[in-house]
Each structure stands twice: as structure tokens, then as C-alpha cells.
Amino acid sequence: MDETSREANPKIQRVSSAEFVRRFSAYCDVALAEPIVLTRNGRDRLMVISVERYKQLLAFAVMHAEACDGVNDEVAELEDLIRRSGT
After folding, report:
1. Which sign does the torsion angle of CA 80, 83, 84, 87 carry?
2. At residue 22, what are phi and psi to the nearest 5 degrees?
């Protein structure tokens, strides 16, 4: 994440990878309730989220992609109509 992402999500906990390894079990429990960003050399590298949250995000992405496909199909049909009408 860049600085903008950090400002947009100030309450996401950031933990160094070394600290995460030292307290693995405790941070896994935290990740069940909220995402954790793992850092390396002060830079955001990975995010740990619960399986439930992953499934929610995946379902949202699929739903969004399907909605976009429908819109894209409609736009393509309109473009085709415009081309055929010679406008």
C-alpha cells in the first residue's frame, strides 16, 4: 500500500513480518476479526485476512465483474447500432 492507502485505512494494523512470526497465533486470531498488513523493511508487502472475509471479497468481485460484463454487452450493442445506422 502506498501512503494514500495508509491514510484511507488508518485503523488497519501493520506488523513486521518478523513480529508476525514471533506472535503468529495471536496475530492469526486478530486477522479473524480484521485485516493485518505485513511489512518488510517498512513497506507493505502482504495482507492477512480471514477465509470468511476472502469469500466475501471474492463474491463481491464476481458480482461486480458480472455487472460490468452486462454493461459492456449493452455498450457493444449500442455501438453496433450506431455503426449500422451510419451515424
Report:
1. positive
2. -60, -40
Condensed to tens digits (0 to 9), the pLDDT of residues 8-49 reads 566 899 999 999 999 999 999 999 999 999 999 999 999 999
Global confidence as pTM: 0.64
Q: How far apart are CA 32 and CA 51, in angstroms?
A: 8
